[in-house]
Amino acid sequence: MTLAQATRGQRLLIAAIPDAAIRAQAIRFGIAEGAEVECYEKLPAGPIVVGRGKQQIAIGRRLAENIEVKPA
Predict the structure, then answer these.
(1) Cα-Cα-Cα-Cα dihedral sign, residues 10, 11, 16, 21
(2) What are the residue ranges spanned by the domains of the chain?
(3) Which residues form a coiled coil (predicted)?
(4) DSSP one-letter string for 10-39
(5) Which residue, 9, 14, 20, 29, shows the most beta carbons closer than 10 Å to its own?
């Protein structure tokens, strides 16, 4: 399953970020493989808002389609 398929309120574990450029981008925001995040908001045809700790970030839909997750 990808981050783009997550539902609001779901807790997720980042399973894999296959693309090296996307992985580097995600690490800058504190999201790496093995991190647990929560899906706060999923805007129609827009970004996915995820949070970890007290930080929330909006991840573009196309970027979210390349981040593999599994339920936590």
Answers:
(1) positive
(2) 3-71
(3) none
(4) -EEEEEE--SHHHHHHHHHTT--TT-EEEE
(5) 14
pLDDT at 69: 97
- Identity of the residue numbered 30: G
Query: Please, which residues have CB within 8 angstroms of residue 43's CB and are 6 or more apart in sequence?
Result: 49
Type of residue found at 28: R
* pLDDT 10s digits, 2-14: 999 999 999 999 9
pLDDT of residue 51: 94
For residue 3, count CB atoms less than 10 angstroms from its CB and return exposed for 0-12, middle for 13-18, buried for 19 or more.
buried
Kindly tell me if the per-residue pLDDT of 22 is higher than 90. Answer: no
